[in-house]
Amino acid sequence: MPDTQVTKAPPSLLYMVKQVELVVRSHLDELVRPAGITALQYTALTVLERHDGLSAAQLARDSFVTAQSIADLVRSLDSRGLVRRERNPRNRRELLILLTDDGRELLARYAGPVRELEERMVHDLTARQTEQFREALTKAWHALS
Question: 65 CB contacts (<8 Å, ≥6 apart)?
Answer without folding.
Answer: 40, 44, 73
